[in-house]
Amino acid sequence: MPVPDVLAAVDLGSNSFHMLVARYSHGQLVIVDRLREMVRLAAGLDEHDRLSRDSVNRAHACLERFGQRLRDMKAERVRVVGTNTLRKAKRKGAFLDRAREALGHPIEIISGVEEARLIYLGVAHTTPSDGGHRLVVDIGGGSTELIIGEGLAAKRLDSLYIGCVSQTVRHFADGVISEKRMKRARTAAQLEIEPVMARFRRSEWDAAFGASGTMRAVSDTLLARGAPNGNITREGVEWLLGECLRVGQVDRLKLPGLAAERQEILPGGLAILVEVFDMLGIETMRVADGALREGLLYDLLGRMTDEDARVRSVRAMEARFHVDAVQADRVEGTALGFLRQVRESWALDEPLAEMMLRWAARLHEVGLDIAHSHYHRHGAYLLQHADLPGFPREEQALLAALVGGHRRKLNLASLEELVPPWHLKAESLIVLLRLAVLLHRARAPRALPKIDLEARGRSLSATFPKGWLAQNPLTAADLEQETEYLQAVGFRLRTN
User: What is the pTM of this model?
Assistant: First the structure.
């Protein structure tokens, strides 16, 4: 069955309703429309778990606006899900009927575990895999999801019955933030986390990621305070908790980077977050771009082969900028063969080194679609500033640096801005890419001879079969020029 050109996902969350519309192009999803409204559905549940009239009216007004965008889309192209609040709500039949009419599409109320699976899918498709296990934490309005996964596969999933809205309503309904109230909120979080703590302890995962609104709000606040990349740290969480207790009132909580709409529900979310950090042994948490709604979109593409989102991004760039795939194959094969020879000497054992070299080889000519003159610079600019799903900023910068440095004079100053240790290792990858591109300058189908490389520090020796360079004078001249380019930046290349 062919993949539709346009897909949509609607997430009826306990705090906010989200809608994503994406176009399927060159094997990847490109977001073309994004709508979000804070409905606070969880706050509308009374003591009998029935939705209040006001919350129902807010929800339906929002869904009518969403429905206008989805009106002409076929059912197989749209998936709409309800989460914790709609799982809990009683006598919701009339609400769902009106919601279905407003949207023009049926609503699926998913389980907590299914919600966790989709959240992980959204995170996994929008962040690169480092090859290890990752913990994903999503503090929603009515529930908190914990997932451990590897690659695109979720291994352990759990959904806890605590969320930022429900905790705020229960412990901070009048806006007062006191030590006593915060202690009660934290104890409630502890009681929910404790039964699953052993399954998600620190020894079970390698890196932690946060997803959705609460994590983004905390990250934005810490970023405004100076946290690198907006990463959430234990120290940052403790500081934010202290600020809440210091002001003592929600409406007095004026923090740079904190959106006004998040201010009211921050105390409840923070009570959960601080216990998640403490009980699961988290020191640092990165914030993912994707979450449930992105997972819904990729779930619609389940009939496609699962692969790293970055691979799809690279392929899309190849197609969009008319890369010569045959030439890219040649350069990729030679560059990776060189890497295998020097991997140990240059400490390029990380999987990311091979992936980056592979992708740079495939995209080194992406700038030719703009102009031949300085096409390596055009390519670097495109890769630096394009939307590349799956690539974090630091990896996108590394890819751009490799492509920008693959020919002509080499500027190592640009590498200093890369995240360590890649500010050093990028030079080695660039040298391998430059050599592979140079040797395929003729774009000829014939295979290269066996070339032996020996690397040591900032030097590289390339040994060719006897007489081969004499039989290929243009390549010999290019290698002499390359030796001068590299010598100018203190790197020694020897050929014989």
Answer: 0.67
